[in-house]
Amino acid sequence: MNASYAVRALTPAHGDLANAAGVPAQLANAKYVESLARIVYYWGYPAVDTFGRTSAWQLMKEPGATLGLFPGAPKNRMGYLADYMPAPQRKVVTPNNDTIYGVGLVDLASDSVVIQTPTDAPKGHYWTIQIVDLFTTVTHQLGSASGTPGGKLLLVGPGWKGEKPAGFIDVLRSPTNVGGVFGRSFAAHSPEAKARARAVLNQIGIVPLSQDKPGRLVFDCEASARNKVFPPGLTAEMVTADPDLLRGRPVNVKTFWDDLKKALDANPAVGPDDAPMADQARTLLALREAAPAWKTLLDRVALEADAELHDGARYHQVGVDAGGNGWQRQENGGAWGTDWFGRAQAAVIYIFVNDYREAIYWIRGTDAKGALLYGRYGYTMNFPKGSLPPVDRDKGGFWSLSMYDQDYYMLPTSPNGRHNIGTVNLDADELEFNADGSLTLHLSHQPPADKSAQANWLPAPEGQFALIVRTYVPLQPLLDGSYKLPNVQRV
Prior knowledge:
13 helices, single chain, 4-stranded mixed β-sheet, Jelly Rolls, 21% strand, Immunoglobulin-like, alpha+beta
């Protein structure tokens, strides 16, 4: 449909009839635009978030650590950390404390991208390369779970035409020009385990096709982590002294429509699930430029929708009941299809989640009686004998229970060094089982009085908190919902 026609059609043909006879049509059209704009805001929120992160392209000349804390890189390259994301940071919500990250943002209109997968990963070591489009939908999930072979793959944009280059495993298509390529390598807590994780991560990376070389490419996550880059006006000392300097919503509601236009201009083609809404968005953007009254209306709707989205996207509200016991999940995590509402919520609370077949995220913010969780109280989770989350250890599968404050950040410091508890603690023989073979985890701000309970203690903030259980490489009982996590009981 011609955008110009669509814009003109939203203004009544005879809105100025005598005796205010045209007013009902004016109000009806305005209500339609208002309703459409609210939906487009939810639809476009993840795209604006993703596109805004490409600002790293201007900041980073080489792969490194943006603000010294987060992986950053130039266009079509990958930056790395050399350890878990630091717990005191207050910019990225709900990072995991299980893997070491590599992050690359791509522009496939400028060049196709070579993705390298590891050829020398220890048996049973978990790694993944998650590829998302502009809207955060997972388009490809490579890794140990899917048995991806070592080598090179070519990631191309929607307009690419050509043949698979010699020596490449496959050609992967992205429905949008801009997207993300995220590497993760599992790391237990020991120095040896982290060295192993880095050795695998150093085999994972991306480069523009024009910069590819024959044979294996060499990456260096430790060198990347040492390259700490700060934008003008910020220093390492300032961020260390006041981590809250970095707090802020990644989407600026006051510039949302302008930012959405930039994102769509850079991505004229989108996937089939997003194409109809992209047409509607472009109509609204043209309408916003057509008259001051329309601009005022659309800007107001963005403010309202942004407040509604952030008020509703909370751990005690998002998702559906996951088989009882108070846990929730988004059953289509990462594979959003036309679920624009769920995708926007995920962008707020844990953006760039893996495809649910790769990792299931179980969330909650309430106890067994439906009351909000507060660290000033004590809580327990009891896994009966033989009922720990079923994950495929042969493919690197693991699980963890992570603790976050009410704003979904980790505790800046943990009295026992834990920000999560799970497979790594079991493998290190750090947890104590009950006499009947069950495992009881303890969640509270103050340590449990019982010494044996302290071995199973996950510290909480004193105030409100939220929980995620991550189950990587889930087995069928997790996928089909027959497995149930234990409830969270207030002591």
